[in-house]
UniProtKB/TrEMBL annotation:
Residues 25-85 form the HTH tetR-type domain. Signal peptide: none annotated. Residues 1-25 are annotated as: Disordered. Residues 12-22 have a biased composition (Polar residues). This is TetR family transcriptional regulator. It comes from Caballeronia catudaia. Residues 48-67 bind DNA. GO terms for molecular function: DNA-binding transcription factor activity; transcription cis-regulatory region binding. It comes from the Bacteria. Residues 1-11 have a biased composition (Basic and acidic residues).
Length: 211
């Protein structure tokens, strides 16, 4: 088996190259699909680059053309999930025009996210991986800030006189607490997890109402 090439000085765990041709994009998609399947089955810690290559039906050398290591694959998957999550949040909150709609949209987003995390083991594993790696954790923090900014904008839209700095801080905290709540909830049985998520929703909605 071909060994992993040594990392050059100053090189970080990011995608090596972006595919420009259709064939290259398809190869990248196969790598990510294979990685998701294996991570869901075994957990990211136990997945080897050679296994991803075998499942994707490409050479191990081809993987290293795109990713210097498995950590870079996890990072790419995390960024893809974050982008899709942010799109859903934006669509839901940009339509908000009053407090009732804000409450409904926020509660719905929390419930949807909980179901997605429960139904997709790969997302749970990646979430844990982010928490155990300081560099990767920056992805989660950035996502909480981005989604928090969307929530803050919705709050200001329905409550125009609120103090912006206070609302921005509150919205960021609510979103980051949501990530922690999901990790805790999926670690419990569904009934207990649902109670935790409901408690988080009520606390968050109360804080939003009091702004």
């Amino acid at each position: 088996m071909q060994e992993k090439p040594p990392r050059k000085k100053g090189e970080t765990s990011v995608t090596r190259r972006q595919p420009a041709q259709q064939r290259s994009r398809e190869r990248l998609d196969r790598i990510l699909e294979a990685a998701q399947q294996l991570i869901a089955e075994k957990g990211s810690e136990h997945v080897k680059m050679s296994e991803i290559a075998e499942l994707a039906e490409i050479s191990i050398g081809s993987i290293y053309q795109y990713f210097p290591d498995k950590r870079a694959i996890v990072r790419t998957l995390a960024e893809l999930y974050a982008a899709e999550s942010r799109r859903c949040v934006r669509e839901a909150l940009e339509a908000v025009q009053n407090k009732a709609q804000l409450r409904e949209a926020f509660a719905s987003l929390v419930d949807q996210y909980y179901e997605i995390v429960r139904d997709k083991p790969v997302m749970r594993d990646i979430s844990s991986a982010l928490r155990s790696d300081k560099e990767l954790m920056s992805i989660e923090i950035a996502e909480s800030k981005a989604c928090g900014a969307l929530l803050a904008a919705a709050i200001r839209r329905v409550t125009p006189r609120v103090e912006s700095k206070r609302v921005n801080a509150l919205a960021f905290l609510i979103w980051q607490m949501g990530e922690e709540t999901m990790r805790l909830a999926v670690a419990h049985k569904r009934g207990e997890g649902t109670l935790l998520v409901d408690a988080y929703k009520q606390m968050s909605l109360r804080a939003i109402e009091e702004t």
